[in-house]
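User: Reviewer 2 asked us to show a designed sequence for the structure in our supplementary figure. I'm pasting the structure tokens here. Could you produce the per-position amino acids so we can include them in the response letter?
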């Protein structure tokens, strides 16, 4: 699949999408490891109904931007099974090892958090608290800059 593309083709495929995410890097660095959601329980809602999460607006914008990317992988589960990923520790370990030809792994991990958060409310928060979103964007930036020069 992506291992058959040349270095230039891979850069052409990934660089534009990585550039779009760079505007979130300062925010991700500031908020990584933090809780970016709260539970809304106004006006006694918790007494009669379930509370629901309210997310930081920048997180929602970041998630929306990633979700619109053509690189989002609805079959992200295969990335996890093929690479033996099952915990955030495994995710961080493989993120650190990814090279240009394996960028699809980074997008698979990103897809798990973005798409998973659409149905399970804690997944986006987990991506922030575990530092996964930050690690992914930083690694994507590092790879593209190594092969194509500074992004800005």
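Assistant: Here is a per-position design you can include in the supplement:
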């Amino acid at each position: 699949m992506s291992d058959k593309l040349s270095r230039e083709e891979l850069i052409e495929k990934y660089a534009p999408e990585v550039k779009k995410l760079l505007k979130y890097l300062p925010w991700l660095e500031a908020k990584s490891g933090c809780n970016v959601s709260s539970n809304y329980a106004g006006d006694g809602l918790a007494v009669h109904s379930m509370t629901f999460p309210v997310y930081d607006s920048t997180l929602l914008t970041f998630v929306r931007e990633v979700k619109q990317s053509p690189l989002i992988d609805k079959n992200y589960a295969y990335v996890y099974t093929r690479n033996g990923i099952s915990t955030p520790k495994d995710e961080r370990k493989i993120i650190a090892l990814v090279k240009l030809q394996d960028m699809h792994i980074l997008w698979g991990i990103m897809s798990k958090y973005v798409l998973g958060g659409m149905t399970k409310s804690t997944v986006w928060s987990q991506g922030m608290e575990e530092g996964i979103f930050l690690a992914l964007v930083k690694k994507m930036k590092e790879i593209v800059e190594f092969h194509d020069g500074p992004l800005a």
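For the response letter, you might also mention the following. The radius of gyration is 16 Å. The mean pLDDT is 88.
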